[in-house]
Amino acid sequence: MKYLASFFPVTLSAQWQLQTNKQLNQHLIDWLYDAGSLTARLKSLCKNFRVEVIGQEVQECTADEASTTIQKGEKVLVREVLLYCDEQPQVFARSLLPLKSLTGDEQQLAHLGSQPLGQVLFNNPQLERQSISVASFDMHTGVGQLCKHLALPSQAELWGRRSLFVLNNKPIMVAEVFLPNSFAYQKGAFA
């Protein structure tokens, strides 16, 4: 849906933390800290899974998103998508792929189209996840405004996670925010 392109880039400025001091239910914690493929987990819970690309372009890494392996000002390919299960938006994802990481076999990551990045990453035995950090987002943030545009129910807090992956010594940052009505918030409904 081309109308979503007007939201790009949504961005995810947040206070990312390895542990949150907020009390979260165990069901949500399980989703936030699941070390497996989110794509595979979502696919197992629905009949029709799809990815909708909101936007993709080369930008400079911001100070908010910089890490020990992706530097502020470094050129990165930013990819923002929605993950759907049975036509219900479940997850907003923002990926940073440093241009220095898009060499060799990893060049294909710049040309995924509607193919899920997670599926490609987790199919590679060289993939290493270095960390998972979490953050919350209110409805005034970019992702909150996207939810309003998608006519999703208002929710006090949306929770997300950010993972630093290394593939063949090449860093990739993937952030995923669980949207209202996501399986992650439906305690007891899904494993």
State the gist of this model.
By secondary structure, this protein is an alpha+beta fold. The chain is 14% helix and 34% strand.
The CATH homologous superfamily is termed Chorismate lyase-like
Instruction: Determine the mean pLDDT.
Output: 89
Task: Round the Cα radius of gyration to an integer and report it.
Answer: 16 Å
- Could you please say which CATH topology applies here? Chorismate lyase
Shape: globular
Give the strand order, joined by hyphens, for the main sheet.
1-2-3-6-5-4
Q: Total helix count? A: 4
Give the low-confidence spans.
none
Note the topology.
Blueprint: H1 26-32, H2 38-43, E1 49-60, E2 75-85, E3 88-98, H3 117-122, E4 127-137, H4 142-149, E5 158-167, E6 170-178
Antiparallel strand pairs: 1-2, 2-3, 3-6, 4-5, 5-6
